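Aim 2 progress update. The chain analyzed this quarter is reproduced below.
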Amino acid sequence: MADDPEFSVYQFFPDGSHEAVCRFVRGERAVRIFKMLCENVGARIGTTVRVIVTDGGDSTCMEWKFGEGYTWPPELAAITKGK
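Predicted structure tokens:
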């Protein structure tokens, strides 16, 4: 259920390392943090190269990549192409 605290947000860096920004939060909070990370200074200058939201089963629910924008899910990628 989307209200269960089962989502996590991770950001990745150019050297291949990553960090868990938040773990096991509700869906609404995960989406707010994801959006913030995709639009912050690090994302604009390339010190953040990828941001993902995963669910409790470790499946990727949302993805953003530096230079590509939103890439997953396809519906989000289609309506935000180039952002």
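The helical segments are 27-39, 41-45, 74-79. Residues 7-68 form one domain. These observations will guide the mutagenesis experiments scheduled for the next reporting period.
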